[in-house]
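Archive entry: two folds, one per protein. Generate the first.
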Amino acid sequence: MSGPTFLGTQRILTEEQHPLTWRLRADQQPVWFDEYRSKSGYVGAEKALKGMAPDDVVSTVKDSGLSGRGGAGFSTGLKWSLMPKDESMNVRYILCNADEMEPGTYKDRLLMEQLPHLLVEGMLIGGFALKAYRGYIFLRGEYIEAADHLRRAIEEAKKAGFLGKNILGSGFDFELFVHTGAGRYICGEETALINSLEGRRANPRSKPPFPATSGAWGKPTCVNNVETLCNVPSIVQHGPEWYRGLSAGKSQDAGTKLMGFSGRVKNPGLWELPFGITARELLEDYAGGMQDGLKLKAWQPGGAGTDFLTDAHLDLPMDFANIAKAGSRLGTALAMAVDDKISMVGLTRNLEEFFARESCGWCTPCRDGLPWSVKILTALEKGEGQPGDVETIEQLCRFLSPGHTFCALAPGAVEPLQSAIKYFREEFEAGIKVKTFNNLNPIAGIQPNLLKQRW
């Protein structure tokens, strides 16, 4: 299994500006314990466990402005503060959502394969802050190399005294486990992940109760993304003011973000960049622009479940607020470029097939609506569409919008579809088959050429 391309190593990576990636090796080999320690590894954990109270850690993360890196962008510190304060509830869990199955997204894989100790340290600090005695890394089953590297890192941390009983003499006990999933996109939804971890079918749960109140095995549980947790050690080590100062321009989002571009660009890859950098800078300065002979037709800001934007949106800052104002979502911030040779009908049909296959089948709109959209799109792609098909798809998008389904899978699935119709409607209408009655005898004085109609 080949790893994702990381072109950031072509530039100078510093601890002051690249808290996630500055430790990466030029040969792309994993950074194991001794090397990680020599590069300020576990310094944040030592500071937290030896000199801070759990609530102080939560406040530090909250003040830093760290937002969730799984796509939603919710405040991490606020999420941590929702865990119950009742000391009698002494069984709690911290879960890492490493079920990275969003098409076009591979940022968490990079961190787990090459910097496994960074995630281990982030989970250790998170467990201490949340007073959770046990953590689980719920890993996509296909990430075999990542699983091996994480398990080795956990064993190294245990031998060094950073996992287990009475860590660093703090009185805090913490165990960490890797749990590989069966390869289901729906496990990216936190309550479906919890069900799968418990050995149940991976269906989302009704909320409330929220996981912070009743999560894994009915106990208070916090679920965070890989990249989110990997930011925590540097925030604790250097402070929230330092972290907020990393973002560029007037971006409301703090820190840096793993961003990338895939598609037919000259240098597809992944970089750690400050929030506020524009999509044009990301595409042209880092990804090298489109391949020769191709023009940018559309792009998705952050994964297959985000609305398409056009070249008119390239000067938008890559942050949650500005991308949302344009009608899309930053998502995972790994953008996909669509060139002018690609059919939007075929592309959206391919995306909807994926989402239809990955639906858990729990609610009717998602279970039946997504396959219906695939059926219509397939007909349009073959030039066999019927009049009204495009309008039917638009109606389906409304039926599958937020608030109409049990979880966010279907609303995310129709985002690229509705935006493709918005910007490229003529491509969809071109797939409608037009039949005419040219060989009929005149009826009631009406000439044959006046009997043309669309089926």
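Generate the second and append.
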Amino acid sequence: MNIFRLAGDMTHLASVLVLLLKIHTIKSCAGISLKTQELYALVFATRYLDLFTRHISLYNTLMKVIFLGSSFSIVWYIRRHKIVRRSYDKDYDTFRHYFLIIPCLLLALLINEKFTFREVMWAFSLYLEAVAIIPQLVLLQRTRNIDNLTEQYVFLLGAYRALYILNWIYRYFTQPHYVHWISWISGLVQTLLYADFFYYYFQSWKNNVKLELPA
């Protein structure tokens, strides 16, 4: 464990807490893409197949449980909660997210570290996580009505991945034979997808104006 990974994990956890805070306190999911949340639920479900068969540490297990439980609970709230689901931007959240799943699965079958079910699913989860934010970004561009909690949620998600890239760089120079090209490339792609959002986020912060993404 190094400072960059710990900061990345805490930032990721903070993004989840911000989203849950919005849902629980405001009883609203306006500006939140159900499609992205469903993709994240699939990401964690396929990545943590070893939850009950491989114990690394209490910290590792706890984080797996938190991300699995929170992702599925968020999907449930948006789909089923009698109050929260009324605020869902269904007419704007129309990106066909299932078009992202099949290419990621095919890529995982072709490019993986070991051709076993668990390793293919691990690679699939990385590829899918890299593009899972796309429906959310498209939704924000369409609605152009971004509240403070939603913008903080997306910013923290992007910051988490950027910190993980620093973690990989640190480990590459401090740990012998630490090479994980699949993680590195998918993480870089994911971070680049946030570049446009980061630019307008910092512009709004600098000018003290409401965040708006161009259509």
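Annotation attached to the second fold: The chain has nine helices and no strands. The mean pLDDT is 91.
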